[in-house]
Amino acid sequence: MSRKQRRQQQLALRNRRQVQAQQGGPQIVQGVQAHHTSIQQTEQWTGPLPHPEALARFNEVVPGSADRIIAMAEREQAHRTEMQRSVLNAEIGDNRRGHYLGFAVAIAAVIGVPVTVWLHAPAAVSIALVSVPVLGIVRAFINRESNDESPKETVSK
After folding, report:
1. What are phi and psi of 87, to 5 degrees?
2. Residue 35 near residue 26 (C-beta atoms within 8 A)
3. Distance between CA atoms of 30 and 32, rounded to whole angstroms?
4. d(Cα 108, Cα 128) in Å, to the nearest integer?
5. Phi-psi region at 47: left, alpha or beta (left = phi > 0; alpha = psi -120 to 50)
6. 3-state class (DSSP) for residue 76
7. What are phi and psi of 33, to 5 degrees?
């Protein structure tokens, strides 16, 4: 091996040691290998209220703030419950209204068939009057069965 090649190897080794030292890797200092170790601790808290230690610190900074924060969370929960109740009541009302309208259309069609026969209308008119509510009922049953097979996802925050 020539001098030039040895010199290049020494420079490469020195560069690797410098890079390792910058990256916190092992270093060789006078024949002793040193390791750099770092420890990181994380803590996660989820929920409508801050972590109890944070809540205590809030109370130290602004006396009474912990009670205010808890009251705010309670009001938010009551509001959310009331909103869910009102949405559910609106859905029930829409469903009920749909049933009443469907029943009215079906009755009108059933009453319309004898009227069309009495007026000597073509048979296609009577068939159309009967088929519309029947197809609506079949569609309702099909939709109900498909909803039963795949449960709806509930959205909660």
Report:
1. -65, -45
2. yes
3. 6
4. 12
5. left
6. helix
7. -90, 130
pLDDT tens string 47-88: 888 888 889 999 999 999 999 999 999 999 999 999 999 999
- DSSP secondary structure code for residue 130 in this structure: H
Which pTM value belongs to this model? Answer: 0.50
Radius of gyration for the alpha carbons in the chain, expressed in angstroms and rounded: 39
State the Cα–Cα distance between residues 71 and 58, nearest whole angstrom: 14
Looking from the CA of 67 toward its CB, the CA atoms found within 13 Å total: 3
Alpha-carbon distance of 35 to 156, in angstroms, equals 48
* Residue 113 burial class via C-beta count within 10 angstroms: exposed 0-12, middle 13-18, buried 19 and up: middle
Q: Are 104 and 136 in contact (CB under 8 A)?
A: no
Token code pair at residue 68: 């205010």
